[in-house]
Amino acid sequence: MTEHTRTDGLPGIDEPALPPIQERARPRNERMAADKIECNACPILCQIGPGRTGACDRYANHEGTLVRVDPVVMLRRQIAEGEPVLVAFAGRPSLPGPEGATPPVDEAQAAPWSGDLLHADQVFVTGIGCSTTYPDYKPAPFIVGSKVDGVDLVTVVTEGIFSYCSFKLKIDTDRYLGPEQANVRCKGEVVGHVTTAEYGSQMLSLGGVHHLTGGSKKEGRITLDVMQALGNKAAVELTIDGGSQIVVQAGRAPIVNGVEEQRMRVGCGSATIGIFARQFHGLADEVVVVDDHITGVLTEHQAGRCLDMRASGIRMRGRKSTPGRYFQVANPGTGWGGTDIADPLTILEGWDEAVAWPGLRLLMTSTTGEHASWYVLDEALVPREQAMPPALRAIVERIGENCEPSLCTVLFLGGAGGSLRAGVTENPVLLTRSIKQALVNVTCGGAPAYVWPGGGITIMTDVMRMPDHSFGTVPTPALVAPIEFSMRLDDFRALGGHVDHVRPLEEVLRHGAWHNDGAPTARRWLQASAGNPWPLGRPPVIG
């Protein structure tokens, strides 16, 4: 069985057959084999043989009928213990989730839903598995009407086909990953670049339309594979030109050159001096916090001056910025404080003999406390390493304690423009304006999305707040991601929405999507994340 011949949900496996999506099958091409179906869910227009799926693995030919392989994902609000579970019907057990995922509600075992719409605000229909309406000449697959606090709401639900999209990675480490603007590669193909570093984090920008469509076919395919894997919280191995080899995964620590990172720095070298100056005072005569960006020197620093510390006469390499703050003491790397040094004494140029003294106590540490050494100057003013006193060791450990765990954060960034908006309204610009006026709440799989200012609908969301396996692909190549637009019914009507296609939540739960011709829709229930605001909360008040 090849990669594109899976038959999930079709006869011959444990799961029962899924309901037909008859309207999505185009009339048969005369040159196409009689037993094949042409699918128009994306521009590929796959001709699907019996028992097989299309190139995206999302649609299949079941006994001559085009069916949607994946179930629609429904979210339930957190339900108090002992409170009855809200379900739609008891006809089809939910599909098993990935290992470690929040277990879905098994509809075959749960009590049937009573139809009481007093609990309608406990259900949210996501775009995961709901299908697209490409090329969006018709309304979205789900346009759901509900009521919250006596206010009539509408949620327009679809799967968007995103060519204009990318992932922004925030990698919490002070290790040097590579020069800014350097190419990031996967399997030899360029899939993104290194962008500006932020406080305690290295940043990557991966994907985007130029890599998907502007390069070779192989580059587009591998870029899409990387994007889908990252969105679905899987690990991806990347190499950076002139830099490191890394493994990144949403919600996990990065692995840099085969070593799993542990800590995000507490701050730059200057900040570390400022935070811990009072604790160092009296225990050390000089403290140097090594940092790739700003190395701090205690006695010269404003914090040391405020404590009336005696000048040590230390002479530092690099470029002095302000008192106690040095730039470029070493090259970037994976050693002390994100530099390329293994011996911290290499950043010292010596001591002022008129100021320094034998017996001077010197602590050198990194911004994470992972590296630290204790020295005492001998009669020739040469630092000699000694065992670190317990009181100083406790402060170094406190630096480490104040460092947050190293983590990879993966943010999906997509442009929800083009024809996708036509599934909401016949006048797409009114949807854009309503979103900018905070009349519409945009979510991705029920997770909150930040809408960027300026033109268009550019959204960004943390994939860790989305349900597992939220992303799919089509081989155009483009990423498939869920998107939902929730608003007041009156506002939906005002923006020219497809009001005639609004269906009450009760009907959707009983019968499924509009294009299923009344047949029950395969679905999977998940409990909404407690960390996410409920998408159908109290509507915003404007003005």
Main features:
543 residues; alpha+beta; seven-stranded mixed beta sheet; 8 helices; disordered C terminus
Any overview of this molecule?
This protein has about 550 residues and is α+β, with helices and mostly antiparallel strands. Helix content is about 15%, strand content about 30%. The protein contains eight helices and 35 strands. The strands form seven sheets. It has an eleven-stranded antiparallel β-sheet with strand order 17-16-15-14-11-12-13-10-27-31-30. A hairpin with a 6-residue loop joins strand 15 (about 245-250) and strand 16 (about 255).
Regions with pLDDT < 50 over 5+ consecutive residues?
1-26, 82-118, 513-520, 539-543
Average pLDDT, rounded to a whole number, is 84
Question: Which class do the helix and strand fractions yield?
Answer: alpha+beta
Q: What's the helix count?
A: 8
> How many strand elements?
35
Helix content: 10-25%
The general outline is elongated
Q: Order of strands side by side in the largest beta sheet? A: 17-16-15-14-11-12-13-10-27-31-30
Largest sheet: 11 strands, antiparallel
Terminus-to-terminus distance: 59 Å
* Strand percent estimate: 25-35%
Our Rg estimate from Cα atoms comes to 29 Å
